[in-house]
Amino acid sequence: MLRITLPDGSSREVPEGSTLQDVAAEIGSRLAKQAVAGKINGRPADLAALVADGDRVEILTLTSDAGLEVYRHTAAHLMAHAVKDLFGDAIQVTIGPSIENGFYYDFYSPHHAFSPEDFERIEGRMQELVDADLPIVRDEVRRDQAVELFRSLGEEYKVQLIEELTEPVVSLYRQGDFVDLCRGPHLPRTGLIKAFKLTSVAGAYWRGDEKNAMLQRIYATAFPDNKQLRTHLARIEEARKRDHRRIGRELDLFSFNEEAGAGLVIWHPRGALLRTLLEDFERREHLRRGYDLVLGPQILKTELWQTSGHYDNYRENMYFTEVDGQSYGIKPMNCLSHMLIYKSHMRSYRDLPLRYFELGTVHRHEKSGVLHGLLRVRGFTQDDAHILCTPEQLDGEIKGVLAFVQDIMGIFGFEYEVEISTRPEKSIGTNQDWELATNALMGALKDSGLEFVINDGDGAFYGPKIDIKLKDALDRKWQCATIQCDFTLPERFDLNYIGADGEKHRPVMLHRVILGAIERFIGVLIEHFAGNFPLWISPVQAIIVNVTDNQAGYAEQVFHYLRDAGVRVEKDLRNEKLGFKIREAQMAKIPYMLVVGDNEMQSGTVAPRYRNGKNLDPMSAADFVQHVQDECSRYH
RNA sequence: GCCCACAUAGCUCAGUCGGUAGAGCGCAUCCUUGGUAAGGAUGAGGUCACCGGUUCAAAUCCGGUUGUGGGCUCCA
Q1: Model-level pTM?
Q2: Residues of A forming the active site
Q3: Residue A80 and residue A126: Cα distance in Å, rounded?
Q4: Closest C-alpha to A442, from A428, A456, A462
Q5: Protein footprint on strand B: which nucleotides are under 7 Å from a CB?
Q6: Is residue A316 part of a domain?
Q7: Which of A161, A334, A440, A441 has the most CB atoms lying inside 10 A of its own CB?
């Protein structure tokens, strides 16, 4: 007998030669049925794997992420099998991992571009392979044998993968006549895959390197049953409805125009108002926290961009213009004028920290393929600040920014993830600088009690950084706030201050944004609220709707009263039925509809209806102003 | 930038085999004065993204450009 340990700490005896499947059966018939794979001493393994005396054993089911991952990875093999059956030697298989909510498989297919029309055939073949219930068998062979095998199959990408492995023995998984190099584990039979769907096809570079061949990636998803699959697809459909590009058009917030140029936002009245409200909010919040408002020009001489290093490192992304033989660079970042402001005086340590804040509009020539609604544009406005301080002040300044970020995200109710990126291979600055800055960033995060992940070697070449990523409706993460230490600019611009010792010292610089780019932030904001903005930031807070023409004069009076009182109000006095006007206002997601009929006119009131359909008791216009003010102040 | 797809009225879309353009919504006018998510009638709107090619004939086929979408790479 063998003695094994289970995750709950209990131990169990099983006969010699037992597999994970046997162990599962030993524990319970239901577990045996639900098992998809397992772990032996923490390492993932097939159900067919043998257990040994003293092993720590865990059974994975579809209720765990790890189990679902195995399930989807097996589904990826199933899809590759089907594609190989249908397209044969014309294609080569490469890799196919499971991902969040699904999986993909990359194929090298130089002669056939997969299209959604192929999906049905591929799904059909997958179903046949499921129905055939093929056993999935693990096979371990020497590396050279594996190379030989895949070479004979014409699978050059697999050959390349194996040749780069260091292990003397590699594992293969076979199902029917399909064989794939794979670490595993996998489900024991193809018949266990229940619900899957191919979702999209896209190009992807081999190994994610743009110098390599372009492969074709088929995205798909798989769930334990059809109900869960349908739920997932419905959720994606729901998310599409809150796509900021769609809502932006429906609410008439902004547009793009082919004649104006790609990635250049055109703000319509309501969108421009929303943006202005955000910007006003930002100015207030920055002034409260000891920032100075500054403004720099849109274009600066090219020589200055050479001094800063942007010309050497960022030229590809910049727009240039030349007048009277003088070349200017249109600013892609706001730091330059901030450096010049610092340099405009002799600085004492008593002046520090200096916090220069600018809602700075920048232009960057982003690659055409990356543009995406408001979330990735070529012209945008950052809520940018550069903090110049002494090394001793660095820690406190970083904490101040983190607290700022938390305040603001709390006001909007955003979910976010925090990442810290450390020194990359190609970088400048001394080890001492990097250590100081990295420790300061990490220490501040720890002290702030924020959870974070470390991206080793992912920092900017000029310094480490903290990134805060918001999630959009489709669960994609978008970087908004970022805090970056910068060693180059104080150096390049020879910034200094006179310390208490009477000597010149180099200040430390922090570059930071809170919302990031206003455009991107609004994009995420739209999706977050599905266009139902909180009252304090709604471009239109209320709309007056009259029941008949009879109240038009009274409605006008109320309208002017509210507008004078600072309420962002519109009026709909058209000759339409009340229900029709309510419906339109509702679809425009306007928070309050103020109904005025004969009753209200006689009593000098309005009858507010909230966009969730609830009615408030009729109140005077003055009371409504108070009501709006109260609601706005509750939100921030 | 790369791969694939797409571009028809303000919006959402139909348009068969290449034979000269259609719907709903919206808009305008008129009727209707109606109390909380669509009242009715009539009408106007399109160089089928742009440029070129094939053809007797192009929204339709081919090439290019621009823009858009899904990804990859890159990034706020």
Answers
A1: 0.91
A2: 335, 364, 382, 384, 386, 465, 511
A3: 9
A4: A456
A5: 1-5, 11-12, 31-39, 66-76
A6: no
A7: A441
Give the closest nucleotide to A203 (alpha carbon vs C1'): B3
From the CA of A112, how many Å to the C1' of B62? Answer: 19
Which nucleotide's C1' is closest to A205 (Cα)? B72
Nearest alpha carbon to residue A319 among A308, A333, A335: A333
Domain assignment present for residue A305? The answer is: no
pLDDT-based confidence at residue A475 (cuts at 50, 70, 90)? low
- ∠ CA A54-A59-A65, nearest 5°, is 130
As a rounded value in angstroms, the CA-to-C1' distance for A101 and B72 is 19
Residue nearest to nucleotide B33 (CA to C1'): A548
Tens digits of residue pLDDT in A182-229: 987 999 999 999 999 998 889 999 999 988 999 999 999 999 999 999
Structural domain boundaries, residue A120 = 71-241
Clarify whether residues A107 and A205 are in a common domain: yes
Whether residues A506 and A425 fall in one domain? yes
Predicted complex ipTM exceeds 0.90:
yes
CATH assignment at residue A568 = 3.40.50.800
Question: Nearest residue to B72, CA vs C1'?
Answer: A204
**pLDDT tens by residue, A219-270:** 999 999 999 998 888 888 888 888 999 999 999 999 999 889 999 999 999 9
* Residue A517 forms part of a structural domain: yes
Helical (H) or strand (E) element with A476: none
